[in-house]
Amino acid sequence: MKTVPSIAVQILLAVLITVVVVLGIASLIELRILERREARQLRDRGPIAAERVANNLAYPLWNLNHFETERVVLDELAAPEIVGIQVLDENGQLYLGKAEDSKGAVRDLASQKPSDNVAVDYTFTKEIKFRNNRIGSVRVDISRAYLEPSLANLRWGIAVKLLLVVIVLSIVLYVALRLLVIRRLALLKSWIKGADTSASTPQFKYSEEFNSLARSFGSLSGHLRQKHDELESEHSKLQELNQQLQERIVEREMAEAALRESEKRFRQLTENINEVFWLYTPDYKTVLYISPTYERIWGKTTESLRENPYSFLDSVYSEDREWLEQVITTLRDTGFDVEYRIIKPDGLMRWIRDRGFPIKDEAGTLQRIAGIAEDVTERKQAQQDLRAYADRVRDLYNNAPCGYHSLDEDGVYVQINDTELNWLGL
């Protein structure tokens, strides 16, 4: 995590930056004013210097004394602001020219072009007269270059002064912040973090702002402690509710697992028995469940039965359909056990035993109707074969050429054939 400077450091940096910026701008303005003042003074002294040089050159130039003229020029070049002097004759031709380079050395000028080594700020031209006769002119080049060392020293002085001000101000601000702010904030922080914030708030001398801040923190701390206690209480309640919810979730998951297992076993049972298990609403308009065995016995899909819950009646033998529909409707509250015939799509007839069981709620209201339908064709055929065999045995017994009779243990006739009865004349 990024470390944030303390408030004291932030205040100190803010004040120092402000002071440095303000003092820097003020120093730059002061330096600029000084440079402009020096330039203005230099510009004002230029014509005076040019006139002085012209007056000093009048006599030597009148006498065409080249040596004396050069001496006067060199003497005038000794002035710090003058960097070049060109003496022109009355025809405007260069008579004598001297100029200083950037290192201060004097060189001769071969033309009226000013010095290339030193920046010339002003050039002043003055006519040279002797006894009111114009005998030539002088051109004086003025530069501010001689002021650069002084200005550099001034800049360094300003920088040192600014640095000293920053150092002194930093020390003063640090001590003031340490005594007036940091120590008081530390005391206030220690009181806020203390275990018993209900005690009286700390008081600071000569600082109503800190006293007001302490009272505000005290009020806020009490309010926060109250809210904290309320949140703790709510948290405990939430934990208790969460525990109860977890228990309910576990119970529900167990119940769902048991239900899934029960459904799995139910499907395994209904899908592997030879009987059809069905579940209808009381009005027979909705199929709640139909086992897959329906497709094998009826020869129709379970989906067709779900789409048309009464479609199973379409396969019922025509002579059985009317009374079967009446039975399953009138006896749905008590249950029924019926046998009827169906015709499968391949034309085969099958005997069906169908048993219905009402499912009611605690109030006795019919909620669903469950039932089991099984194919009893083989049993029906066996019963018919058994009855036919019994009829044949009975006919053979009665029409035998000899008499037959049976007695019980008490000697009472329990059975006698027709031949013996005829013999007895009965």
Q: What is the strand and helix layout of this fold?
A:
Layout (H helix, E strand, L loop, with lengths): L6 H56 L3 H12 L4 E8 L4 E7 L5 E3 L13 E9 L2 E10 L5 H46 L14 H65 L3 E5 L6 E4 L2 H6 L3 H6 L10 H13 L5 E8 L5 E12 L5 E10 L1 H22 L6 E3 L5 E4 L1 H7 L2
Antiparallel strand pairs: 1-2, 1-5, 2-3, 4-5, 6-7, 6-10, 8-9, 9-10, 11-12
Helix pairs in contact: 1-2, 1-3, 3-4
The dominant shape is rod-shaped
Strand order of the largest sheet: 3-2-1-5-4
Q: How many β strands by DSSP?
A: 12
Computed structural class: alpha+beta
Q: What order do the SSEs take from the amino end to the carboxyl end, as H and E? A: HHEEEEEHHEEHHHEEEHEEH
Estimate what percentage of residues fall within beta strands: 15-25%
Mean pLDDT: 79
Radius of gyration: 66 Å
Helix content: 40-55%
With helices defined by DSSP (H or I, 4 residues minimum), what is the helix count? Answer: 9
Describe this structure in words.
It is built from nine helices and twelve strands. The protein is an alpha+beta fold and 426 residues long. Helix 3 (148-193) packs across helix 4 (208-272). The longest helix has 65 residues, at 208-272. The chain is rod-shaped, with a radius of gyration of 66 Å.
Structure summarized in a few sentences:
This protein has 426 residues and is an alpha+beta fold. Helices cover 55% and strands 19% of the residues.
Which descriptors apply to this entry?
426 residues, alpha+beta, five-stranded antiparallel β-sheet, 19% strand, rod-shaped
